[in-house]
C-alpha cells in the first residue's frame, strides 16, 4: 500500500504522499534527502542487529516518550554514528556503556560522537532516549505519521502509518531500507483502558502503577523499519490455525470490539489468501511471528506479521473495483493486497525506495493471482488487463537512487502488467510458479536491488528479459508493434522501444490461431502468405500497442 489510484469515471485520482518528490529530477534533491536515502559515512560502518524499542503513548496530549536501545555489529571502525529521528521529536540523551555522549543535530538526523572504541566485528549497544509530539498524519496511510482518532463509540484509537515517510517519524533508528535488524522488541505503553497490537508475538502485558499498561511484542525475524506499528484501541481478538507449507501458522484477528461479528465473516478471506499465496509464492515468510490482521483507523498498510486493515469490511477497494472488470469486487482489496506484501515487500525488501516496484508491481500482480485462485486463469488475466486503465505513463517507474525517492505510481499497475507479460513469455505456468517461489526462497528475508530480481528472473526463465525491464521500468513509452501488409506478405517491427528490444509477442493473424512473432527494431517478414484483408491482433495479455503502418493511430 502507498499510492493507490482510484478511478472515478474517467478521472484517475492518485492519492499520493510523495507525488511531488516522484516528479523531482536529479539535482532537485536536498542534503536531507541524501542523509535519509543513502548509505552515508555515519551508517555504512554499522549493521543494526536488534532494536529494543520502548514507547509510552499519551493520547491526552498526543505525545510520546521512550527509548530505543540499538544493538549493532561494527563492520569497520568509526567515530561518528548517524541515527535518524524526525522533528519535532527531541532526543533527551544518547548513552553508550553507561556514559552520555555528545551529538549534533542535522535536521532529521543525529550525528553522535562515539567515545568507546568500535573495533571491527564488535557488538555494541547505544541507547537513544527521546520524547515529543510526533508529526500527526494528514492523510494516512499516504501522508502518514501518528494517527490520533476515536472510534465510532468515542473510544480513543491510536495508530501509526509511515511508509515512505519513515519509521524515524516516531522512533529513533537507522531509517534506511537496506538495513533491517534481525529481531526487535516493540514495548508500547498505553492507558489501561486500551489494548496495543503491534508486530510479532505478545510476550508480556505489564500493568503499571500509573494507570498504564505495557504491551510487549517481540518480532523474532528481520523486519523493515516502516513496518513497526502501534495500534491501540478497544479490540476484540479471535484466532485460527492455518495448516500451511511449514506447519501450523497462527492467524490472529484484532477487529474493533463492535466489529467482531462482521470481522468473523470478512476475515475468512485471509485463510484462502494464505493458501493461494503459499501455492504461488512459497511458504508464508513469518511462521515464528505469525500472521495478524489488525483493524486500523486508516485504509491499510503491509505491516509485517500484523497487517493493518481499514477497508470497512467491504469487498473491492472501499467497495470499488479498481480493475473495472467485476473481478475486483469478489474479494477484499486490503486483505489481499497488503498480505501480498508479506512476500513482496516484507520477505523481499527493496534496498532503495527507487526500486519500490519490487513491492508494488508484484503485489498488484498478486491480486491477479488471487483472482486466478478463486475464479480461474482467465479471470486473473482479465483483472490485470483491466487494471491497466490506472496507468498514466507520466514518469519512469524506477525513481532516483540514494535520496529516498520513489518513481511513478505506475509501479503498481504497469509493474503488474509487465510481470503478467513475463509469464506469457515464460509460457509454462509451472515454470512461472517456480520462478515466483524461487524469488521468495532465493531472497528469503533479504533486502535486494532491482538488478538482483531482474537477473534472477532472466536466469530462471532461461531468457534475457533485461531490455523488457529497461523499457517498462525506465521509460514511459509503450512498445508499438508496427506492421504492414503488402500483397500477401506481412511485415512487422518494434517502434518506441529501447535499443535492442526484441520481445517476442503473441498475435492472431487474420482469423488464424495465436502465433508467436519475434519482432526486432528492423522489419521482419512473416514466413507464410496472408490475405490482403487480414489484420494483426496482439494477445491482450501483452501490454503493447499495435499499429498498421498504413493507419495513423496505434491501438491497444
Ligand atoms: Zn502496496
Question: How would you characterize this protein structure?
Answer:
The chain has 556 residues and is α+β, with helices and mostly antiparallel strands. The chain has eleven helices and 31 strands. The strands form eight sheets. The protein has an eight-stranded mixed β-sheet with strand order 7-6-10-4-3-13-16-15, with no helix packed on it. The chain has a five-stranded mixed β-sheet with strand order 18-19-20-22-21. α6 runs antiparallel to α7. The chain is globular, with a radius of gyration of 25 Å. The two termini are 28 Å apart.
Which characteristics define this entry?
556 residues, alpha+beta, eight-stranded mixed β-sheet, binds zinc ion
Chart the SSEs and their pairings.
Blueprint: E1 4-8, E2 11-15, H1 19-23, H2 31-37, E3 46-58, E4 63-74, E5 80-84, E6 90-96, E7 99-100, E8 103-106, E9 109-113, E10 123-132, E11 145-150, E12 156-161, E13 183-191, E14 195-196, E15 201-207, E16 212-219, E17 231-233, E18 238-244, E19 247-254, H3 260-266, H4 269-281, E20 291-295, E21 300-301, E22 307-309, H5 333-340, E23 348-350, H6 357-375, H7 377-387, H8 413-426, H9 429-442, E24 446-448, H10 450-461, H11 466-474, E25 480-486, E26 489-495, E27 505-509, E28 514-517, E29 524-525, E30 536-538, E31 545-548
Parallel strand pairs: 3-13, 19-20, 20-22, 23-24, 25-31
Antiparallel strand pairs: 1-2, 3-4, 4-10, 5-9, 6-7, 6-10, 8-9, 11-12, 12-17, 13-16, 14-17, 15-16, 18-19, 21-22, 25-26, 26-29, 27-28, 27-30
Helix pairs in contact: 4-5, 4-6, 5-6, 6-7, 6-8, 7-8, 9-10
The chain binds zinc ion.
Zinc ion binds at residues 1-2, 337, 341, 360, 363.
